Amino acid sequence: MKTLRLYGAGLLVALLLTLTACVPSTNVPSTRGSGGGGGFPNFTLSLNPTSLTVQQGSSGITQLTVTPQGGFTGTASLSLVGAPSGVTLSPTSVNVTGFNPVILDLTVSVDSGVAPGTYNFQVKVTGGGITRTAALSLTVTASSGGGGGGGGSGVGTTWTLRNLDNYLFGVAYGNGLFVAVGNGGTILTSPGGVTWTARISGTSRWLEGVAHGNGLFVAVGKDGTILTSRDGVTWTERVSGTGNWLQGVAYGKGTFVAVGLSNTILTSSDGVSWTERIAKDNPLGGVAHGNGLFVAVGAGGTILTSRDGVSWTARASGTGNWFRGVAYGNGLFVAVGKGGTILTSRDGVSWTARASGTKSWLSSVTYGNGLFVAVGGGGAILISPDGVSWTARTSGTGNRLSGVAYGNNTFVAVGGGGAILISPDGVSWTARASGGNPLNGVAYGNGLFVVVGYRGTILTSPDGVSWTERASGTSNWLGGVAHGNGRFVAVGEDGTILTSPDGVTWTPRTSGTSNDLNGVAYGNGTFVAVGEDGIILTSP
Fold first, then answer.
1. pTM over 0.70
2. Count of CB atoms within 10 A of residue 264's CB?
3. Given CA atoms 202, 219, 246, 350 in this order, what sign does their dihedral have?
4. Least enclosed by CB within 10 Å: which of 3, 62, 204, 419?
5. 381: nearest Cα among 395, 371, 397
6. pLDDT score at 159
7. How far is it, in rounded angstroms, from Cα 430 to Cα 376?
């Protein structure tokens, strides 16, 4: 009987344990990052930095870290709570797929109309019925744009070339730390950019580029060298699969991209395993901005995209044809080029070929009044209400048309032989007289059309009908022009950059390059100029 009593007690304990396991816990969910049995699904979040200073009409970046707990997975929405009107957040969702923290760059954009001052609000993350917030402080400073006579400072005035010829070749910031790299395997770190500490890289080979993304620093250099570090202090060499000299690296869209000599391009999702990609070292001919994204196009079917103008990602175009122009309108990017090539994309990532009905080289495209207009060789003009179906129109000229823009309820197309054509609807076109020099680009802003072209030609018109020649101060040909933040910017031969607040008085700026610049665009508080050898310049 004694044995039976013990056996019965064991059954009772087992039963009680079973019943207890079936009752949901009322404790705070586990903070362990592993899945299964770690408490209810949950997550925590943090921002770094927790304060930003952003100029009107520009944007700043803070890094969001979402740490899953108790096996939490899924897509969570991102939003701002208590932010002033005109302050927006991108992206608006984050996908959590595993047990590890997810690190995401958040872009906080400030419209030009947001009053200067300091604003305290929250970043809200909601997913799986759970809502968490993190505090963010935003200081908005006044825009430095404008000013008479083309002088002053600010957007379009001070230009930075993103590769420097010095003993230190690259610098990046992440997780509260600056990391600089250079010759002889040099790696320096600094929390504020003032005091620097030398770190052991484990190599004597030159390091030419460094980037930070997804919680990881990646440095690249001579003989295909790739080093990674979580903290900027301890570094590990990785197998790149190439012996070519790597000269730069960037992170975006969840991918590191390293580039180097012999047109080498390597990609990696984690900085550890690298894959060689088809290299592109092609001239870039056009750039546009829309929906928070820059898109640059060029030779060999090159399409590059960037959120900030600094980090660029190559996209598959599906063609080897040369692109010369790109525009954004009605939620659609349209790229045009050789042999009548037209591609469209909603997001700048996936592109679809469209039938243009022409074999003429298309040089430029614009959007206005609900209509895309593309122009090109032999006076070709095509129009489309949706970017999909295109119709040829009679231009009345056999000259190559190089640029087209819309403003003041008028389309203006320009080209060889000084051709200037205007149209109120994109259908009927009328020729206007100019100085006779070939014209390459046209833009509209502040009630004025500005046309640029051969031997420094600059023409202006309030209506597209009557044109006045302006003194550019240069004999270099000008390839493109754009307007933004109260300023015209023209670019061209030998790295020429000119700026003007009114289209009349022009001031030369230092570009830092002698490469020809073929196109320029404005968006997200930044001018982006593109040109030969794939060069990209940004300002500020």
1. no
2. 21
3. positive
4. 3
5. 395
6. 60
7. 16
Q: Identify whether the C-beta of residue 111 lies closer than 8 Å to the C-beta of residue 87.
A: yes
Residue 95: which H helix or E strand, with range?
A: strand 93-96
3-state SS class at 91 = coil
Which letter does DSSP use for residue 399 in this model? S
pLDDT value, residue 252? 77
Per-residue model confidence (pLDDT) at position 87: 93
Residues 6+ apart with CB under 8 A from 404: 364, 365, 366, 373, 374, 375, 411, 412, 413, 414, 442
Q: Which two tokens stand for residue 318?
A: 């599906």
Tell me the C-alpha distance between 355 and 511, whole Å: 38
Please, what are the domains in the chain? 42-141 (2.60.40.10), 168-277 (2.120.10.80), 284-539 (2.120.10.80)
Token pair recorded at residue 419: 């051709």
Chunked into runs of 10 residues, the chain (540 residues) has average pLDDT values of 34 32 35 40 87 79 84 90 92 84 84 88 92 92 49 56 49 80 82 73 87 90 93 92 81 77 74 71 78 85 84 88 92 95 96 96 93 94 96 92 88 84 93 76 92 92 90 94 94 95 95 89 89 84
DSSP string covering 417-484 = GG-EEEESSSSS-EEE---SS-EEEEEEETTEEEEEEGGG-EEEESSSSS-EEE--S--S-EEEEEEE
Largest CA-CA distance found in the chain, in angstroms, rounded: 117
CA dist 420 and 433 (Å) reads: 7
Distance CA 491, CA 266 (A): 31
Q: Which amino acid is at 250?
A: A
Cα 256–Cα 259–Cα 261 angle in degrees, nearest 5 = 160
Strand partners, 226: 220, 238
Q: What is the DSSP secondary structure assignment for residue 160, as one 8-state letter?
A: B
